[in-house]
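Dear colleague,

Following up on yesterday's call, I've attached the two folding results inline so they're easy to grep. Please treat them as preliminary; we haven't cross-checked anything against experimental data yet. The first protein's sequence and structure tokens come first.
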Amino acid sequence: YTNTVTYAARDCYRNTGNGDIFIIGRQRDDYPQFRSMPAAIKKGLLIFGRTASGTPFMRTVNDQGTYDYKLIYRNEAAGLSIWRLRIPASGGQPEMTFTTIDGRDLEAPRPHTRTVTVTITVGSSDTTYWRGVIAYGSHDRQ
């Protein structure tokens, strides 16, 4: 599938109620036809920001709900952030843990080029059924 996230200056906000500042990215996932499954387009939001106290946050909003990722590692000097989302087992589905690794591309000629890798672990830490990379790519501030 192809994932595109578009940011615009008009999508920068300050929540006057709690002091959060954030930018909303408009996400579009294009899935080609696969076997008997028809082609599909899914849309959502990818939101990055800081709370009034300065704590960074990452949130996704899509047709399955709103998810708040937890920042588990940050290295300002390397421009690296690692975010994690754990979805508990429910309805016969196993636990899933998504990890997003977002870092500055140190070899890129432009200083704002970043690489992103998303991994998933299916199952608990005691019983892992599958673990691997599910998406990767890059983005650049333009």
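Below is the second protein, in the same order (sequence, then structure):
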Amino acid sequence: MLIYRSKYNFLNLKRIIDRLVYHDDADLINSLSRKSQDFFILQAIVGSIFMVLTGGVVLSGFAVYLGASDETVGYIPLISSISGIFLVFSGLFLERFKNIKKLVICLNSIAKPLLVSIILVPLLIPEKLKVLVLFIILIIGYSINMLMSLAINSWFVNVIPLNIRGRYFAIRQVFAVIISALVPLISGIILDITGKSYKGFAILYATALVFIIAENIAFWNIEDSYIENSDREKFNIADVFRMPLKNKEFMGFTYKMIFFYMVLYISASFSQVYMIRYLRLSYTFISTMSTINALIQIFILPWWGKICDQRGNEFALRISIWFFAGDIAMWALVSRSSMFVFIPMAYIFGAFSNSGFAVANFNRKYSVIPEKCRTFYDGFYTTAIGLTLLIAPFIGGRIKSFLAGASFVQGNIDFGEFRILYALSVLGIVSLQVFDLLKDRKGKGKFNGINQTS
């Protein structure tokens, strides 16, 4: 009787999971990779909690607490991606490992505790060196974390079948977004209650330690995978550059993303410091905006997954980039008098742009990366984007300083140095989209001409 009841309860739980998690999608429910799917979702949940507790607006606030400058704080949201510049030779390292699971758990056990250790900086480091030491630890920790991410991406692509990858990635992303809806609000309240003091940051970073263990448990229960070509071929340093550079489709995608990230982050990198230091918004308000953004993403992510599987990743990517243009345009309208109107609008547009880009960009990237020596291409791309994100805030900072010194801007436009910078980003994004559209029309014209003459 007890065995029957246990079996009945298990089946009921399974039906609930099938309905709530997989929306009764038979392809996802009956997939041979079902166990790995479940634990990849668990990993996304606990990994997202860790990142929210130790990164984002919390990390930006901690840098402000330590006395970092505007330009320095502007790099905080990007530092994880910027750390990717050190991964150009990561393929040579990753190709030596057969077992991805053990490698990932090992790297996770090094990177995450290192990122938590920054909470000790105010206690152990002299005042003048605090910001410098903070960035050194962050760069090392995020570099190791980015190396782990390359291995996870290869692992994910190997384990999750292509025919369900768009829908599954969107569903997995939903759970990460749910965390982005709840945890920032809680962390913002804690920081405000503690008066934005060291105590509040210490509570959040100490809590993050628990989720490192939980994430390793999730990794351990995912089906293992093996890196293609491990121990079969010998590679040299030149191959790291030669192989990606010879692939025209991959390089075309990479060039497009370099330009997009450049024009986006000359302004977007300053959004958090704009809100915290200049508009003097509370952490609770900023976290509430993040929650609204995340709640919207929960409902639209499955839609993006279906678009990727049905209309193609390139189509979805272009649509998401148009939403980025709307997102940044709202920031260009933000001032003291309008901030409570246009910041929420920006976060609403951002829900569509970020959710679509997360799904489409991931799947599009791995559709143009060959399976053979995948880590070479992934490392090259990550390095290229990392360098772009290192340069973009620097260029944006120089433009912002120039605008701040212009008497016309200061006398006529409230926070004009920020708002004009956002307007320049919108112009750059629209130019990219128009170029893509014209290139497509030109290509179709040539194709039609060949058909007519043949």
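For the second protein, one point worth flagging: The chain is about 80% helix and 0% strand.

Best wishes,
A.L.
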